[in-house]
Amino acid sequence: MTAAARPYRSVLYIPGSKDRALEKAATLACDAIIFDLEDAVAVEEKVNARATLIKALTEADYGSRARIVRVNGLDTPWGRDDVLAMAEAVHAGAKIDAILIPKVSMKGDLDAVANLINGVPLWAMMETAMGMLNAAEIAAHPRLEGMVMGTNDLAKELQSRFRADRLPLVTGLGLCLLAAKTYGRIIVDGVYNAFKDEAGLKVECDQGRDMGFDGKTLIHPAQLEIANAAFAPSEAEIDLARRQIAAFEEAQAQGLGVAVVDGKIVENLHIVTARQVLAKAEAIVALAN
Ligand SMILES: CC(C)(COP(=O)(O)OP(=O)(O)OC[C@H]1O[C@@H](n2cnc3c(N)ncnc32)[C@H](O)[C@@H]1OP(=O)(O)O)[C@@H](O)C(=O)NCCC(=O)NCCSC(=O)C[C@H](O)C(=O)O
Ligand SMILES: [Mg+2]
Question: Where is the HpcH/HpaI aldolase/citrate lyase domain (predicted)?
Answer without folding.
Answer: 9-221
